[in-house]
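Researcher: Please translate sequence to structure tokens.
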Amino acid sequence: MSKSFYVCLLLSVFLAISGCDDSDDNAHAELVTIGLIFPLSAPKGKPRHQAALLAARHLAEAGYPIRTVVEDSQLDKFLGVDAARNLVENGKAKVLIGASDSGITMEIADWVSIPNQIPQISYASTSPEMTELKDDDFLFRTVPSDKLQGAVLAYLAKEVKGYEKVAVIYRQGSYGDHHSFEFQNEFQSRGGTVTSIQAHVADPPTDFDIEADFTHILDNIRDVGIPQAIVAISRDEESNVYIKQALARKEFKEVEFIFVDANKNTNIFKDVSNTALEGMCGTFPSPPDYKLPPEEDSRLMFENSYNNVFPKDKQQEQGDLETYTFLHHSYDAVIVAGLAAYAATQEKGQAITSIDIRDQLRNVAATQEGTKIGPGIDNLRTALEHLKNREPINYEGASGSVDFDNNGDVIAPIEIWCYNNGQTQTSNICEVMDIGTEPKQVVCKEPTQKPSQ
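Model: Translation complete:
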């Protein structure tokens, strides 16, 4: 992995605020350094990184420039830890933004952020295991836990679709293990039966016969009884293989599929026809494309600003939605880190510590009595004015409300989306009202304005 983390992209790409050379100590004496960890070598890394850079640009234009340094996790837990350590020890980062994968995020927390007392904010890690991690309050996330998505996924299967018997195919690892566990518990608490749970290998070696493995998995599901539906908890490049296989087998002719966030795209239509999946649905955490007041303006403001600065490329134009997920959450992670740093400087002056920043995160994003602040330069300028006057604010982000609870989690809506005429379309927006009950109380409503596709 490259060690060139001194790529000060905010200043070099957007603004000539000061020099980007780390050796120029005077130039950076008053700039808080935020370390960014993105899978830059993967398609989804670039747009998420761009969203983080947009946040840094907005903070700077609002009056509070920050310094950003970035490293590539390469979607590998060892390289991710190495990247985080490099950012903290050599880059002098006081906050870490990352990572994209739950397993990598928790490894970084264990080996870097907790030992060094550095607050870490993930923009895409959804594993419930993070909630239980003993992190000394140094681990946060702007995306909701799979406990919420698992509850809505079970609600979709049992209450919306009316399935009594389903099977589950899931990807081994933090994402699939916990997601499947949450779904199974919730579906069974609603009176449903999970006939079979089948795990598949994550990131198999190149000589691994993935098609033969999925054939074996489908055989196992068949042997215990054909279910009404199969819940696909896999990356789309994996689920597309076994979905295509199932559709080609007569015994699965009447079986439908239920999907999760990793499948919210139209890539599968390259392998099967548009009509094969018509009406089948899935879930997505804290959706970026629904329109419900008061978040409507916040989301639209972010999306317009992002598209103005970073024009759509071919992948985005062709509907590669998985690549463009969690942009809103990446933006919000940098914004709340920056606002917390600014709030800390108002309390203690420029010589703030990482702990000082950590202690301000909830004060800028979860103070219900504070003035509500949305994304965008003008809103952030207002936020800085309030913080300068020691007045409370409550940042309501591009991804929705960013209210960190005692575990550093956020409670956010979950979208139910469905395939409709070869596109994905929002069907309902759901909220889990009480996470401690079984089954969990789920309340859904149609969006006031459905997004155009």
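Researcher: Any highlights?
Model: Residues 146-285+414-445 form a domain with the Rossmann fold fold (CATH 3.40.50.2300).
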